[in-house]
C-alpha cells in the first residue's frame, strides 16, 4: 500500500505508537507496508499518525513517512483524531501515568506491557471501564501465540480446569541449550545473550518473575481470579545444574520452566518453577525460545498452543491483531462483557494455600556413601507419609562433583529419588529435614514432576 | 443455573437447536447446565427456546425442560423471539433450504455442517450478507480447536504463508493405531468402529473427502481463495499398507493424512494425502483422534494448534463459543468485514496447477531381485530429472509379501527410494514409467515427504 496519507475518512482509525523499540518498529512496518491487509480485516483504513520516541535521531531500521516521528507525547494525547494508542513503553512509570492520561483523552489502548498489567491491571482496567475505553493486551503474554483471545473468547463455552505453559522464551532457550549441549548455566546464558535471546540482565526472565506475571494475567482471564503475581510460589532456572537435566533425562523427563494454574476443589493452585515433564509429550518437546500453553477445558478437553513467544514480528503480529480488533469494534464488546481485572466484582476462585498443592517430586541429594544413609533418608520421607516411586544412586562423576565444589569429597555420591504424590507442605518439610541429616551434604534439589 | 424460564428480557438472546444428535445434546447441556457461564461471557442470558428433532420419542441422554422439544421446524422459523438458529442437521438437503429459510426469517446461524459450507458456502454467505444476517461455523473445522477464529481474527495481522494439518480424526486414529500396533488397515477400521471413532461407512473420512472440504473452507479464510474441494488433489488412507508405516519409521518418519495449503509465487498449492512427516516434530506426534494445524504467518512465524477434532463436548464447545460471539455482537462484525465465501469479490489467490507442486517423495516398489533392476529404475528417475536422496532395499519379509498376494513371488523384493525435491508432475510421470518396467511388479506406492 502507498504511504501517501489518504483523504480524511470518518471511518478511518488513526493510531499512534508510544515507544519505537524493536516491537514498535515491527508494528510500524506492518501498519505502513501492509495497509491493504489491515484494511481488509478491519473493513477500514488503519492509519499510523504518530510515533513517539525519546530520541528523534536514533536509527530504527524503518523509514517512517514524514511528520510521523515526534518526541512529544502531548502531541498524541492532544490530537483528537487519534483513536488508539499503542503503548509499547516498558517499565511501570511513566507508562502507567501515560496510559491513564491517554484514556482520559478518549483513546483506546493496545499494550504489550505485561509488567504494567500485572502490577496495575486492576486500576487501569477499572479506570478504562469508568471512561468507556478499552484495553487490549494480546502481546503481553506469549508474544505471537494468541492465548489471550483464545482463553477469553474462543474457549468461552468452557470452565477452564487447568492451564500450564512455557511462558518465558529466554528460560526455555537456556534450558533447551543446556539439555542439548550438556553445557553449564553460566556459559549458556552468555550464548543466549550473544544471540539476542537474553538481555544483559536476564534476572526477571530466569528467576520466574516474568512467567509469574504472565500467569497472573492468564489466571484473571481463565479463572476469574484476582492474583497478585508476587503471591505465586515461584522459582527460576537460574543456577540450574546440568546434572539434574541428565538425571531427569535418564528417568524419561525433560526439565522446563513451567507456569501452572489448576482448579482443585474450587481453589486455584498456582506455581512457577523448573518442572520435570515427560519426554514425548508436546510440552517436553518445546525447544529454543518457543512458548507453549496447554489449556484443559471441561468441554473441549486439552488444547495445545505452540509458537514464538517473543521477537519483533511475532509480538507485532499480536499488537496489530489487537489494533484491528479495536478498529473493527470487537475489542470494545469483549472488554465490556468480560470481567477481568475488575476491582468491583468478587473473584470467582481464590488461590490455594501453597502447602496444599499436590504432586510428585524429584529429589536430588548428595549423600554420604556409607551404610544407613538411605535408611535415614527414607525414614524421613516415611515420617512425612511420602512414598518413594524410584531411587537412582550413581557413582560419583565429574559434573556432580564440580557442582558441589567445596562441599563434597570422595565419600559423597548423588542420590536421586522420585516420590509418589505428596503435598507441597510435606515435601518441603521432608526435604528440609533430609538436608539437615548428617549424612547429606549441600542443599537438596527438589522439583515437581508432571505427566 | 436454574432452568426456569426467566422473565422476558429484551437483552436476552433466544436460540433454537435444529438436530439433537450427539452434538446437539452436548450443546443443549452447555446452554442449560452452564447458563451462568454463557451469561458471563455474553453479558446477557442465552436461552435455549426450542430443540427440533425428527422423532420426539427417541432417548437423547439429556432432560430438556418442558416445551423445548418439538418436531416442527416451522415452530422455530415462525417464532420472532428466536434470534439464533443452531443448525446441526447433517447432509446437504434439506439443511441448505432450512438455513436459507431461517436467514430469511431474520435468524443468525451457527452451524457445524462442513459439507454444506464446502458445497454451498458461496450461496449461503452471499445470501446472509444480502439479508444482513451472519453465519458462524467454528465447529465445522477441527472440532474443539478454534482454528476458524484463529485464522480469521487472531492472526489477522499476517499474510498466511502456509497451513497444514491433520483435519480428520478418524483417519488419524486409524493410522496411529496401525503404526503403534503394526496392525492391518481393515482390522484397524473395525477397532475404530467398535470404539466409535469411525462410522459404519467411513468412506468420506478415510478417502480424504472430509479433509479436503475442511481445507477448502480454511483456504477461503486464510488465503482469500475460492476453492472447490473437488479440485483439491487428494488421496486417502484407505488401503494403507502397514509396510509403508514400517519403512517410513525406519527412515525417521511417520505417515499422517495431511491437508496442505501453501502460497508459492502467489499461487495456492493444495493437497490432501498420506504424507511422511519427520518424527519428533509436533505434527508427527499427533496421535489417536486428535487434530492439529500448523499455520505459518509472515509476521508471527509458525503457530501450532492441537486438540480434539470431534466428539460431543469438544464440538459443542466450538458451537457454544460461536453462539456467545453471536449474542455479544462479535460475529456480525467479523462476518461483515471479512470477505470469505464472497461470490462477488475476486479471489486473492488462485490454485496452482497440481503438476507444479514441488516436494520430496517416498517411493515403494516391488522389484525383481536381479541385476539391472536398480539401474533401470534410477535411469527413469534421471530421465525425469529426479535425484535420489536414499535407497533402502530389504530382504523379502512376511508383511510385504502378504500385501502383494498373488502378484509376487520369491524373486521380488521391496525397494524404497527417497527422492530430493521434484515436481509432482515429474514424480507422477516417473512413477508411472517405473511401474511399467518389466522388473517392477505391482503398483508403485508414492507419498510426499515433509520436514
Automatic annotation (TrEMBL), chains A, B:
Pfam families: ACT (PF01842), Homoserine_dh (PF00742), NAD_binding_3 (PF03447). GO terms for molecular function: homoserine dehydrogenase activity; NADP binding. CDD domains: ACT_HSDH-Hom. Residues 362-448 form the ACT domain. The keyword Amino-acid biosynthesis applies. NADPH binds at residue 114. It catalyses: L-homoserine + NADP(+) = L-aspartate 4-semialdehyde + NADPH + H(+). Pathway: Amino-acid biosynthesis; L-threonine biosynthesis; L-threonine from L-aspartate: step 3/5; Amino-acid biosynthesis; L-methionine biosynthesis via de novo pathway; L-homoserine from L-aspartate: step 3/3. Belongs to the homoserine dehydrogenase family. This is Homoserine dehydrogenase.
Amino acid at each position: 500500500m502507498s504511504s501517501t496519507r489518504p483523504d480524511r475518512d470518518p471511518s478511518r482509525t488513526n493510531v499512534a505508537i508510544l515507544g519505537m523499540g524493536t516491537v514498535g518498529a515491527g508494528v510500524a512496518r506492518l501498519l505502513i507496508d501492509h495497509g491493504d491487509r489491515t484494511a481488509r480485516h478491519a473493513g477500514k483504513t488503519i492509519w499510523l499518525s504518530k510515533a513517539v520516541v525519546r530520541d528523534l535521531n536514533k536509527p530504527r531500521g524503518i523509514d517512517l513517512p514524514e511528520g510521523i516521528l515526534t518526541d512529544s507525547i502531548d502531541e498524541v494525547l492532544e490530537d483528537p483524531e487519534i483513536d488508539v494508542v499503542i503503548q509499547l513503553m516498558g517499565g511501570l512509570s511513566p507508562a502507567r501515568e501515560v496510559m491513564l492520561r491517554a484514556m482520559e483523552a478518549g483513546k483506546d489502548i493496545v499494550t504489550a506491557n505485561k509488567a504494567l498489567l500485572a502490577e496495575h491491571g486492576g486500576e487501569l482496567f477499572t479506570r478504562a471501564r469508568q471512561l468507556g475505553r478499552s484495553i487490549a493486551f494480546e502481546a503481553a503474554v506469549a508474544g505471537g501465540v494468541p492465548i489471550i483471545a483464545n482463553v477469553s473468547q474462543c474457549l468461552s463455552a468452557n470452565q477452564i480446569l487447568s492451564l500450564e505453559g512455557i511462558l518465558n522464551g529466554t528460560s526455555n532457550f537456556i534450558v533447551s541449550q543446556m539439555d542439548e549441549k550438556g553445557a553449564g548455566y553460566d556459559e549458556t546464558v552468555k550464548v543466549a545473550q550473544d544471540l539476542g535471546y537474553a538481555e544483559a540482565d536476564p534476572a526477571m526472565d530466569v528467576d520466574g518473575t516474568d512467567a509469574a506475571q504472565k500467569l497472573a494475567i492468564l489466571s484473571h482471564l481463565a479463572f476469574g481470579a484476582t492474583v497478585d503475581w508476587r503471591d505465586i510460589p515461584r522459582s527460576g532456572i537460574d543456577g540450574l545444574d546440568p546434572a539434574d537435566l541428565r538425571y531427569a533425562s535418564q528417568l524419561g523427563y525433560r526439565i522446563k520452566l513451567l507456569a501452572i494454574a489448576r482448579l482443585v476443589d474450587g481453589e486455584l493452585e498456582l506455581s512457577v518453577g523448573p518442572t520435570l515433564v515427560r519426554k514425548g509429550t508436546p510440552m517436553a518437546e518445546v525447544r529454543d525460545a518457543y512458548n507453549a500453553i496447554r489449556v484443559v477445558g471441561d468441554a473441549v478437553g486439552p488444547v495445545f498452543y505452540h509458537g514464538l513467544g517473543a521477537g519483533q514480528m511475532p509480538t507485532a503480529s499480536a499488537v496489530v491483531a489487537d489494533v484491528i480488533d479495536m478498529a473493527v469494534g470487537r475489542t470494545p464488546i469483549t472488554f465490556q462483557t468480560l470481567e477481568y481485572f475488575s476491582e468491583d466484582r468478587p473473584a470467582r476462585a481464590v488461590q490455594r494455600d501453597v502447602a496444599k498443592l499436590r504432586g510428585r517430586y524429584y529429589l536430588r541429594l548428595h549423600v554420604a556413601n556409607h551404610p544407613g544413609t538411605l535408611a535415614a533418608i527414607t525414614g524421613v520421607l516415611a515420617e512425612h507419609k511420602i512414598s518413594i516411586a524410584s531411587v537412582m544412586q550413581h557413582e560419583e562423576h565429574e559434573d556432580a562433583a564440580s557442582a558441589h565444589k567445596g562441599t563434597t569429597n570422595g565419600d559423597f555420591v548423588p542420590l536421586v529419588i522420585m516420590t509418589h504424590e505428596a503435598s507441597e507442605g510435606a515435601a518441603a518439610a521432608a526435604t528440609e529435614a533430609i538436608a539437615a541429616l548428617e549424612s547429606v551434604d549441600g542443599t537438596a534439589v527438589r522439583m515437581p514432576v508432571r505427566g
